[in-house]
């Protein structure tokens, strides 16, 4: 997939804009605060109906507007085109349109336009809570395993039912047993999907990391959320009293984690910021490779402030690795010269200068670029 056309209205400080981006490399350059990240945020809104910069809508929508809108034409693997539109309103309401029809949720949106984000907050994948790493895993599983979403929804419903009973005790024994059985079955299916995905992801991650940086002793493992030597039903039974005291289920796939370590330490406690960035980039690139292999579609990568934390050698290595994915990439930087020469001559590169919310396409320095 790639964006053929993008129209943005009333997102932060951006003036209304319509772009026809390159199907490959798009470099957005300009001073800090000019609106570069806001354009990436707009694409993220189009793919997921939410911002990556704020959980609040107020900062995303321009002060004098009631809503912001993003429209996009997306090329599909079968040479077709899909038209997407997302509108977010100040009152929290949102509208998603896909090919002229209202969509009830974001899953179809994410399926049509898979978004991979690499930005300064990406360090949280290493140093943040397990929830962030579970979301990383599940995003990948969602795109390569068609059965995942339905089972994940079953799991969430079973967890809500059990946690409600733990807090209020208003469930008969037969219902309690039925929901525990449903929770256990869905948990094992989710775990199997995740485990199969991690098995595929690990060698891709190791290969991508080796192309970026040499880090000895880095390990990568998956924790399923309960004791690997015990059945989940046994764990739930043994921890029932404790679960009732806390009011929620302690064991299960909702506690899963991806553990990236250096010896006995979390990798985030040992690695430099530049090394952390390269590890995160390797994880995101590995996911893109899996999607390319399993599906005909491809991710759209949003890379905010790529040059930060990286020297020239590692910037060039990262650019070449992204380029090899053969997908659409939007990259921001302050000075275009820090990135423009890092691509092969036959790779289409589009340059966009962003100044005070206005975006203007500019001619590239390399005459062979499109």
Automatic annotation (TrEMBL):
It is found in: Cytoplasm. The keyword Transport does not apply. Belongs to the RecF family. GO terms for molecular function: ATP binding; single-stranded DNA binding. Its main location: cytoplasm. One of its GO terms (biological process) is DNA synthesis involved in DNA repair. ATP binds at residues 30-37. Keywords: ATP-binding, Cytoplasm, DNA damage, DNA repair, DNA replication, DNA-binding, Nucleotide-binding, SOS response. GO terms for cellular component: cytoplasm. The RecF protein is involved in DNA metabolism; it is required for DNA replication and normal SOS inducibility. RecF binds preferentially to single-stranded, linear DNA. It also seems to bind ATP. Residues 3-359 form the RecF/RecN/SMC N-terminal domain. InterPro entries: DNA-binding_RecF, DNA-binding_RecF_CS, P-loop_NTPase, RecF/RecN/SMC_N, RecF_2. The keyword Nucleotide-binding applies. This is DNA replication and repair protein RecF. Pfam families: SMC_N (PF02463).
